[in-house]
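Slide 14.
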Amino acid sequence: MSDGRRPAPARGRPRDAGRDIAILEATLLVLTEVGYDQLTIDAVAARAGVGKPTVYRRYPGKAALVAAAVEHRAPGTPPATPPGNLRAALLATVQWLADQIAEQEIGLLGALFTGMRSDPRLAAEMRRILRRDEAAMTEQPFRNAIESGERLAPDAAALFAEIAPAVIVHRLIVAGQPCDRPFLEHLVDDVLLPLLQRR
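Slide 15: predicted structure.
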């Protein structure tokens, strides 16, 4: 039976997911346009059409905001790789990785690299994201390789995660060349497999 009392009203206003997305997208746009050092919360708030307090209620500072924006544009799920064939697994993984990197804007990557050098907080956030993404990318192919009896070099997964993205970024951004199938086969056959397989 009701005692005649009204239920207590819910505290606070529900978070607006549309504002969340607007803030993160605005962060990426401003970051690409002006770089990390020149990015301000004021500029992001103005671009997103919200007040500065709205941004600060979600993120304590610039590094946390930029890291959240990067995670918002997180890469897709790495492909399932075939067991028992390390070469095929590596080819599938580097093809996926090349596609993910090619989709990123050069200005955004440059802004993040520069920001990591100037702000230790951003560097720590980005390394956390990179370690998580590297683990997701390497876990299945290298687990399958070990279960299939492949003799791998010590820390083969970490070695792959260090070398493959660096070569692909150099190819796409520094050299300005496509990561086509012949190049990716060269990367796997002549660089990665000799390094990753224990002799």
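Speaker note: Residues 21 and 72 are 8 Å apart (CA to CA).
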